[in-house]
Specification:
- The protein is an alpha+beta fold.
- It has helices spanning 15-23, 31-53, 57-88, 93-96, 100-108, 111-120, 125-128, 141-145, 153-163, 165-190, 195-198, 201-212, 225-259, 266-270, 280-289, 364-373, 375-385, 397-419; strands spanning 291-295, 300-302, 310-316, 319-322, 328-330, 335-336, 350-353, 357-363.
- The strands form 2 sheets. Strands 1-8-3-6 form a 4-stranded antiparallel beta sheet. It has a 4-stranded antiparallel beta sheet with strand order 2-7-4-5, with no helix packed on it.
- It is extended and about 85 Å long.
Length: 426
């Protein structure tokens, strides 16, 4: 079912909330958010290029003053950005519940914030110390890492590495075992012929690593027929062993991108009217569960009579409910597919994308689990969705019985939620 109040989330009041929305919710489809994000990305790229070019004496002789001025203004800009982010951090409910001090400290210890701090803080030493600290230039490379904040692919890749950590660890153990086996065999075959390079197991391990990785420096090569035979076997093994973790990462990366066609961030979840005011634990649980997809213009989000496999929340774009001749428009914040609350539920209406739509989906099984775990979420969903109505044009007996059955199931869910969670059953 489609929410009757499909309006956008209310805009937070206050300068701190406004700045938080611009900096931390910059992925929102707003002109100001896109402008600030683009400006920061351009500043980072300009700094990295300038740090590389100023090491060329001929270029630095001409543009040295420009590079110095750019560095000072960049340090100032990064300091302001860092301070504003820390000041606005408590707008995040997860940090606000820790208190104004502990919440900000926890925010400052996040990996992205540590990178932001290292990108500008060491440069202040050059202003106060009398000698030239050229070693501080290496900290400018942290500014390049700041781009990860605006990349959707890097968090997805890190998520894949974490999710597939068991398989990657197993492939690492297999690789190390092969290196040790290759070193042992080569030491046995070539140790007498080449005692300086292959006379020890550690020396032979160096050969095994360069061979398995297909680098092949050529500084250590087998000279006996047996050694060449062993080397040929391990060259082929190297291709297979290094293809294994690459395949694991690539498969997980593609699967993750297919599951989430756009980044589902905390701010995206928090802006949904249906989820506004829920506890931080509930929002975290929901964020870990949802899928995300993008619908092109005129594509069907759901079709009337089709099984309801999930609940959809419209993040951006416009859609239309094909109900009657004119239809009903819906936009960001709309709720589609409340029939997924019920087993064997079906969509009563067809919903079509009028423009490109970004939607997040809660699968039906996960939706029912979340409703049982967080009764407030279920109560709000039922109130938002309204009663179940039969599809347009189906007035026969089967359709009426189907609608009555769906309404009965909805009533049972309302009664269960009103009574609160009962004793757990084994």
């Amino acid at each position: 079912m489609v929410s009757r109040s499909a309006g956008a989330a209310s805009t937070p009041s206050g300068s701190r909330a406004w700045l938080y929305a611009v900096l931390e919710e910059g992925h929102a489809e707003t002109p100001l958010g896109r402008f600030v994000e683009t400006l920061l990305i351009l500043l980072i790229i300009t700094n990295v290029v300038a740090a590389a070019l100023e090491t060329v004496p001929s270029i630095n002789a001409v543009f040295g003053v420009f590079f110095s001025t750019l560095e000072r203004w960049s340090i100032f800009a990064y300091t302001i950005e860092y301070g504003v982010r820390v000041w606005c951090a408590v707008e995040d409910p997860r940090l606000a519940q820790l208190g104004p001090v502990r919440g900000r400290v926890a925010f400052m210890l996040r990996p992205f914030m540590v990178i932001d701090f290292l990108a500008f803080a060491p440069s202040y030493l050059g202003f106060f110390l009398p000698f030239d600290l050229r070693v501080l230039r290496i900290f400018r490379l942290f500014r390049l890492l700041k781009l990860a904040r605006y990349s959707q692919a890097l968090p997805a890749l890190l998520g894949v590495l974490y999710a597939e950590r068991a398989a990657l660890f197993a492939s690492l153990i297999l690789l190390l075992s092969t290196v040790c086996a290759g070193a042992e065999l080569m030491h046995f075959a070539e140790g007498t012929a080449q005692p300086k390079t292959l006379g020890t197991i550690p020396g032979a391990m160096y050969w095994a690593i360069t061979t398995l990785t297909t680098v092949g420096y050529g500084d250590v090569t087998p000279s006996t027929p047996l050694g060449k035979f062993i080397a040929a076997i391990f060259m082929v093994l190297g291709l297979a062993l290094f293809a294994l973790p690459i395949g694991i990462i690539a498969n997980g990366f593609v699967t993750g991108l297919n599951r989430r066609r756009f980044a589902v961030t905390w701010s995206v979840i928090k802006r949904q009217p249906l989820l506004d005011g829920l506890s931080a634990d509930a929002l975290n649980d929901i964020m870990d569960t949802v899928n995300a997809t993008v619908l092109r213009e005129h594509a069907h989000l759901v079709e009337a009579g089709a099984p309801a496999h999930g609940l959809f929340l419209v993040v951006s774009g416009e859609g239309r409910v094909e109900s009657g001749r004119d239809g009903v428009g819906l936009g960001p914040g709309a709720v589609v597919g409340a029939a997924a609350l019920h087993l064997n539920g079906t969509h009563p209406h067809t919903v079509t994308a009028v423009s490109e739509m970004r939607v997040i989906e809660l699968p039906a099984d996960e939706l029912r689990r979340l409703v049982r775990k967080y009764p407030a979420f279920g109560t709000r969903l039922l109130a938002e969705a309204g009663p179940i109505a039969p599809p347009e044009g189906e007035a026969d007996l089967v359709a009426r019985l189907r609608a009555e059955n769906a309404e009965l199931r909805a009533a049972v869910v309302r009664l269960t939620l009103a009574q609160g969670p009962g004793p757990s059953t084994p």
